Amino acid sequence: MNNLLKMERYQLMHNFFYWCGMVGIFLIGFLTADTYVPEVMGLIGGEATSLADIFNGMVYDSTFLLIIISGILSLILGQEFSYKTIDLEISSGHSRKEIFTSKIIIYLIAFNIMALIYPVAGCIREFSKFGIDNVEFLFYNVFKAIIYSCLLNSATFLIAIFICYYLRSLVKAISITVIVTFVLSLYLGYGMMLKLPVAFLPIYQIREAVSKQELFQLTAILIGIVWISILIFLSWIKFRKCDLK
């Protein structure tokens, strides 16, 4: 299992599209950081007064990035089906359970890091403006935002992984993933405006988590766990039975 994890990490870390995504997300965060200063979390957030506000605000407003990042995830994972990489791993003697587990671990870690590059880039851009006045306050807010971002964004990334395992087609997986993520983002925007039920969405709970100061937020944790559990279960059922030859 450890060797398989190392191999999966090596393959992803040497993937051209992954690093293009990392650079692209960093540049977007760096270039748009100034737009968060006057309205850190939209009209209700007020003006930013610290780097913690910038970090929270960019995590709050990163929903549109999930469309791009999920598309990149589908592209890279879809390549593994198109290039028969998974077939080779099975032929090498690895079980489907080991392959499935290693890919879930490596992909979720790698793409959560990609998502967090966005607020990190913004803080780098705004460091000269705000500096660090209260280290404990900054650390607390960044820690909280990272925890909930990783938990709840993982649910969105697992949607992309499930679609890839279900379709096993590079073009179809990218198209359907982008459409599904876009529709969820669109529903969130109009749902909040029209007072529709949106609390069940992980992308909504991210906004709630960074908008509050409490570290333990039971609703966000439960929604994240439920989405992740269901999507991992469905993905495993499909991967376990799918024909890879």
| Whole-number mean pLDDT | 89
Radius of gyration: 19 Å
Sheet with most strands: none
Provide the low-confidence segments as ranges. none
Q: What gross morphology would you assign?
A: globular
How would you describe this structure to a colleague?
The protein is built from 10 helices and 1 strand. With 245 residues, the chain is an all-alpha fold. The protein has one domain (2-241). The protein has helices spanning 2-13, 16-32, 51-60, 63-82, 85-91, 96-130, 135-167, 170-194, 202-211, 218-241; one strand at 40-43. It is 79% helix and 2% strand. The model has no long low-confidence stretch (mean pLDDT 89). The two termini are 23 Å apart.
Which features does this protein show?
79% helix; mainly alpha; single chain; 245 residues; 10 helices
Topology overview:
Blueprint: H1 2-13, H2 16-32, E1 40-43, H3 51-60, H4 63-82, H5 85-91, H6 96-130, H7 135-167, H8 170-194, H9 202-211, H10 218-241
Helix pairs in contact: 1-6, 2-4, 2-6, 3-6, 3-7, 3-9, 4-6, 4-7, 4-8, 6-7, 6-10, 7-8, 7-9, 7-10, 9-10
Q: Brief overview, please?
A:
This protein has 245 residues and is an all-alpha fold.
